[in-house]
Amino acid sequence: MPAVSRRQFVALIAAVLFAAPQVGLSAAEPDVAKMTQELRLKGLAYLKLAQSEDGSWSSPQVPGITALAVYAMLENGANPDDPAVASSLKFLLSHKRQDGGFYAEGSSHKNYETSIILLALVAANKDGRHDAAIKAADGFLRGLQWDEGDNQKPEDPAYGGAGYGRHQRPDLSNTAFLLEALKASGAKSDDPALQKALKFVSRCQNLESEHNNTPFPTKVNDGGFYYTPAAGGNSQAGMTDNGGLRSYASMTYAGLKSMIYAGLKKDDPRVKAATAWLRKHYSLDENPGLGQQGLYYYYHTCAKTLAVLGEDQFEDAAGKKHDWRSELVTVLAKQQKPNGSWINSADRWYEGDPNLVTAYALLALSQCDRSGK
Question: How far is the first Cα of the chain from the last one, in angstroms, to the nearest whole number?
Fold first, then answer.
């Protein structure tokens, strides 16, 4: 048999996988475990086919997408020494900067890129080969956090958060990735950086409490979360008639997960209020508050949060219990394209890019596998 390239070999695997019947939803009792594995295999095969020769996905100038893709592969059972994974890790490591961060030249997404690359390095660090890079990235991320070094006081709205650029206001999405990365690199719930972040996260919640001194919760006070209270406040879901910032689901899951990472328990009023909002707005048909926008970011954040919360059966406000893992797998099976990818027709926040969206979908599926990777 003549020698074949890695791309040709992957194409052969994909041809076999994609020749199989599409995962159906008509069976009365679908085999969710089998469905999950089929979706993952097709998604992984797609990513391998879509990978560029330099190890990147989508654009070498946007390493965050590559980091998310390889992180998704690793979280779904890929080996760090797999040629596709090793190639992407080499590409990511080429973005290491003298300050310890990992980001593209001139990037305004240093926190996002470093956080996701750190997650990928931790997932690939089975033998300690990336210890030094992980330590450097951890230190860099801590330096990005808004605190006393930025002339911020604990009572200031921006305190404890992370944002796009050094001089831009922080937001909950960036802060949630910061927390995820620091936790992955070994930070405990009482770590000063996590406790600082908790102050910011608490101010992103529409909940009147001693932990939120901003003017926004009194105008909504529904327990959900929005994008940022800093620099005048902003919600991607818009404002209420009385000047409040609307809560929406993807940020509410991100906020709840962040609070749990920072050590809050289920009986904390902030956790109870956030969970109540999510029970009231439970849905896998949309990102409540934003419709189809950010849907796959929502899926992966929802799945990770419910797993961290320890909710195998998530009871909605009407008292209906949801096996959210089975429901999410069924939804993702319906949405997967014949080539193994996922894509969002509501192209906002890069979700028109099948490489990014497939990574989000695979990360969600990694939380749905009850048997482990």
Answer: 33
